[in-house]
Structure formats: structure tokens, C-alpha cells
Amino acid sequence: MTSRDPATGLPTLDDDLFTEGEPEAEFNPGIASRLPRKNVAAAALIRDEQGRVLLLEATYKPTWVMPGGVVEADEDPRLGCGRELEEELGLRREPGRLLVVDWVPRHGVWGDQLQFVFDGGVLDEDGVAGLVLQESELRAARFVAPDEFGRVALTPSLTRRLERSVEAQEKGTTEYTTYGRLGR
User: Fold this and answer.
1) Is residue 29 part of a domain?
2) Coil, helix or strand at residue 53
3) In terms of CB atoms within 10 Å, which of 77, 84, 151, 172 comes out highest?
4) How many domains does the structure of the chain reveal?
5) 8: in domain
6) To the nearest whole percent, how much of the chain has pLDDT over 90?
7) Which residue stretches belong to region Disordered (predicted)?
8) Whole-number Å distance between alpha carbons of 130 and 123
9) 178 CB-contact burial (10 Å; exposed 0-12 / middle 13-18 / buried 19+)
10) Residue 30 lies in a domain
11) How does 89-123 read in b/e, with b if 16+ C-beta sit within 10 Å?
12) According to DSSP H, which parts of 21-173 are helical?
């Protein structure tokens, strides 16, 4: 019997996995455990009514970040983004369409990562006033105009990812980037 998601009426992920059948057996035992694993993060591009972008001052790093975070094991990136928005900001909303998938190369102790940026929509004055920062991770939040990204303590790669995300949101496109750069 097919189980259905009550919100969408579609078969559930568990049902999809069941109907896929038994997982493929390893031809060479142990090969799956030796395959590389990528980290995954998901963020939301949230704007105010003036078109400024929400950025967060994290307690755990010297630069500002987008709302979002690391996706947990076996968690859909879009759902992970929504979970992070609720945890960090008390904001309950389902992220919108995918704007950017950015591949971030290994850097120091940090392994390579795929970063998904979703459209987080627009917050009106009441929405902004209702934000509740997660004190253990965030010091401050502020909205920044895209032409002022250079005045905020952002990493160069995040600045590029933000610019690509704003462009994708405005053009109605989805972009694949490498460390925030188009093409390659």
C-alpha cells in the first residue's frame, strides 16, 4: 500500500525508497565505504521590502554569513534550509526555488562542499520585527544592499555567491557556480 504525504498527496520518500527495491549490491565489497563524501550546506537569500539582503553575524567565525547551515545526514537540502531558518531566526517558512548550487573546494581542514542557495522570499516590517536570533550562534542580523556587500566582513567566495544568487533571483534562473564563479 502506498503511503502518501498528507500535504501534497504524493507518495512519501519512504514509499519511494521501498518501491525502488533492494539497494544495488556491491560488486567489490567495501567500495561504498571508500567513496568520497561531500559536505552539504543550504542557505536562503532573504530580502526586505527595499531589496536588501539579510546577513547574519555568527559567533563562531569572523565573517558574516547567509541564513542557513549544514545539512544533516539523510536530510533534503531544502528541508535542511527550512530547519536552519527556524533554528537561527525563529522563521517558519518553506524555502522557495533553487537559485544557486555552488561547489566549494577543499580549503585547509575543511573538505569540499556543495552549497545550495534557495529563494527565501521577502520579509515585510512585521516579519523583520519577528526575527528571533539564536543567541548561541548569532550576534546580529542586518539587511545589506547588494551594492554594499563590499562594506561587510564577507569572504570573497560568499560575496560572489551572494551576487550570483541575487542575479539568479532577479533573472528567474538557477546557476551552477564554482566558488561563486560562473563558468569553468
Assistant:
1) no
2) strand
3) 84
4) 1
5) no
6) 74
7) 1-22
8) 10
9) middle
10) no
11) bebebebeebbbebbbeeeeeeeebebbbbbbbeb
12) 31-34, 77-89, 125-129, 156-171
Q: Is pLDDT of 90 > 60?
A: yes
**Side chain identity, residue 126:** D
Contacts of 48 (CB under 8 A, 6+ apart): 54, 122, 123, 124, 128, 143
**Hunting for cell 565489497 — which residue is that?**
29
Confidence tier at 7 by pLDDT (50, 70, 90): confident
pLDDT in tens, 94-144: 999 999 999 999 988 888 999 999 999 999 999 999 999 999 999 999 999
Name the nearest CA neighbour of 133 among 144, 125, 123, 142: 142
φ, ψ for residue 141, nearest 5 deg: -135, 145
Residue 31 belongs to some domain of the structure: no
Note down the domain range covering 54: 38-178
Q: What is the CATH number of the domain that holds 82?
A: 3.90.79.10
Judged by DSSP in three states, 100 sits in: strand
Nearest to 106 by CA among 182, 39, 163: 39
Residue 9 C-alpha cell reads as 498527496
